[in-house]
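Contributing new records

If you add data, match the layout below exactly. Sequence lines come first and carry their own label; structure lines follow with theirs. Keep one chain per record. Anything else will be rejected by the validation script.
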Amino acid sequence: MKRILISGGKGQLGQCLKNIIPNTSEFETVYVDINELDISNYQDVSKFLKKNSFDYCVNCAAYTAVDLAEDQPEMAQKVNTVGPKNLALACSKNNIVLIHISTDFVFDGEKTQPYIESDQTLPLGVYGKTKLEGEQEVINHLSSYFIIRTSWLYSVYGKNFVKTMLRLSNSTSDLKIVSDQIGSPTNAENLAKLIFKIISGNFKSYGLYHYSDYGKTSWYHFAKSIFKLKDIKVKISPIMSSEYPTAAKRPKYSVLDTKKTQKTFSFKAPDWEDSLKLCLSKL
């Protein structure tokens, strides 16, 4: 039997993992959130992992309020940097494999070709900076780890762009959406399937990986696709990032190259539009 700990279990990826990891005699999965386990408290993490003999820990916990992080850098650092460090230290002591989820926001977005794992990182804001520092803490304190950077995550759970667009369409018939930021929308269920494949397949190819659904688009075209697939009549206008100032600067291009991930784990990334259709069919 494989015993798996999921931190951030109430987030959208944590809830997708509940749907993907089977509840059988082969797998026993424990889902915790901050109320059950505060990953920023090393004593709590150390005791919890020592008391429970896990084989894997999947860290889905993150401070993801990108703009708010600019005003709350200490809070972002606690969750995104200190938390992964504590998990890595405790996993190292207890012989646990850590699967840590990171982000495309570790890059500055100045490239025009998909980012590979070895590309130089240069985050533009507090969120990306603290997530990058979290990656570095895992690398520095643990050898048996998988760090998976992902992008533009959405699902039927939690707060995300897809659900925000559907909610806004109920209250307005005229939307302005940024069109000069390019990335790859990723259905969290597909990321959950990759994580489960790594666990069930007993992979030992530890290291840093990129995963997103296949293809690229802008937030504007992403929104257009959502409304078209749901047959919602909304006037939607493209605007530049400069017309929609935010506290945190976003990378203009953050498409991830997933070839290493697909080859290592024999895992094909589905097309982002097909994945969106599946998600919308459940909403």
